[in-house]
Specification:
The complex is a heterodimer of chains A (310) and B (82). Chain A has 10 helices and 2 strands, in the order αααααββααααα. Chain A is mainly α and 310 residues long. In chain A, β1 and β2 (139-140) form a beta hairpin. Chain B is built from 3 helices and no strands. The chains are: A mainly alpha (310), B mainly alpha (82). Chain A binds chain B through residues 183, 186-187, 189-191, 193, 204-207, 271-273, 275, 278, 303, and chain B through 1-5, 7-8, 43-46, 48, 51-52, 55.
Chain lengths: 310, 82
């Protein structure tokens, strides 16, 4: 059988007597997985450490055919995979009633190169020249092809990492308990909701017709977690001085990043009026919005991390 | 200032209730914030005040019935569980 190079476990030597029961789930058999891979759209299976459950569900049905000679086990596997597919369909249908899955998939279409370059950009944005988001026939390019596009992968991963770091920092100071972790998580989440809501409200009130969707704002609001992680790490490693130095560094970098990114989207969005008097007020308010968002970032970073590094 | 998700829900309900109790005739007209006084011209520059009045009016119209339901549920829950 031709083992694909995507399978991370495939390089381990396996006994010839047959794999253990859980093994076929671990590498996705892309040789026969053509149809379901195109369904997954932008998911780059090489980046994930395990195949998506859908791939495993359908792939297992194909892949284990050669291995199971017992018809009962065969039938059981087929039944289980069909049940899993039905459950997946039901969940997808319910979720897509509230959230547009295609729009969400666009934000998770990332690859390793993009993540590394974006993380470096978040920490040192001063040398980046071109901040325009590139389009391809009216639709924005996915983050995989355009460094300036916002994504939701980095914010969600950074949020979870921040929670783990907070737990570790509290544990080092012997102040840990599971409730505190939940409290930290919901506090950070609530602040993000407040910030996104305030941005949406101000963009609506000032009739700024930008193409910033809610997910874009969530993405830009979530980039601060990277700065928070860096700050907390430096605070843990180097004490109080390291904390403030890292806070200053990540605040400046994040403020510069937010101002440059949002300037492209908010300040240059066309207002279709030709009144001279009205146009002069608009860029000022848009500038205020951008500056307010930028100023808010270090405040929040300090608020959410200072109690972790005492 | 540790927030829980429950406090977020509480804040949302309280703020929406606050917007919903602004009466059109008795209060908003008196201070010149009625929804039909704000819309001046028909250009595509409504201005901040007109947008705000529009927002208040649409929140009141849309959230009237759901707020009734949510408030009733909240009252029952608070009575039962304190």
């Amino acid at each position: 059988m031709d083992l694909p190079h995507h399978g991370h476990r495939a390089t381990k030597p396996r006994a010839r007597t047959g794999p253990p029961a859980g093994d076929p789930m671990l590498f996705d058999d892309t040789s026969s997985g053509g149809p379901q891979m195109t369904n997954q759209g932008y998911y780059n299976s090489g980046y994930m450490s395990g195949p998506p459950a859908a791939g495993a569900g359908a792939g297992a049905g194909v892949g284990v055919n050669n291995l199971f000679t017992d018809p009962m086990a065969n039938a059981a596997v087929m039944y289980g995979s069909s049940i899993a597919n039905q459950g997946k369909d039901i969940v997808n249908k319910e979720i897509s009633r509230f959230v547009s899955m295609n729009k969400l998939k666009y934000f998770f279409a990332v690859d390793t190169k993009y993540v590394i370059k974006k993380l470096m950009l978040l920490m040192f944005p001063y040398t980046h020249q071109d901040w325009e988001v590139r389009y391809h026939r009216d639709t924005p390019l996915p983050p995989r092809h355009d460094l300036n596009a916002p994504d939701l992968y980095i914010p969600s991963m950074a949020f979870i990492t921040y929670l783990l770091l907070a737990g570790m920092a509290l544990g080092i100071q012997k102040r840990f308990s599971p409730e505190v972790l939940g409290l930290c998580a919901s506090t950070a989440l609530v602040w993000m909701v407040i910030e996104v809501f305030a941005m949406l409200l101000s963009l609506y009130l000032l009739t700024v017709h930008s193409d910033l969707s809610t997910f874009d704002l969530i993405a830009y609001s979530g980039y601060k977690y990277v700065g928070m992680i860096f700050t907390v790490l430096c605070g843990l490693l180097f004490g109080s001085d390291g904390y403030f130095v890292a806070l200053a560094w990540s605040s400046c970098a994040l403020m510069y990043f937010i101002v440059r990114s949002l300037k492209m989207k908010i300040l240059s969005s066309l207002s279709s009026d030709s009144m001279g008097a009205g146009a002069s007020a608009k860029p000022r308010f848009r500038l205020y919005i951008t500056m307010a968002t930028a100023i808010f970032q270090p405040v929040i970073i300090y608020w959410l991390t200072s109690h972790l590094v005492r | 200032m540790a927030f829980t998700l429950y406090s977020l829900i509480q804040t949302a309900i309280l703020c929406t209730n606050a917007i919903a109790v602004l009466h059109e005739e008795r209060f908003l007209s008196k201070i010149g914030w009625a929804a039909d006084q704000g819309i001046g011209g028909f250009g595509d520059e409504p201005g901040v005040k007109a947008q705000l009045l529009n927002l208040i009016r649409s929140v009141r119209t849309v959230m009237r019935v759901p707020l009734i339901i949510v408030n009733s549920v909240c009252i029952v829950l608070l009575l039962l569980f304190g």
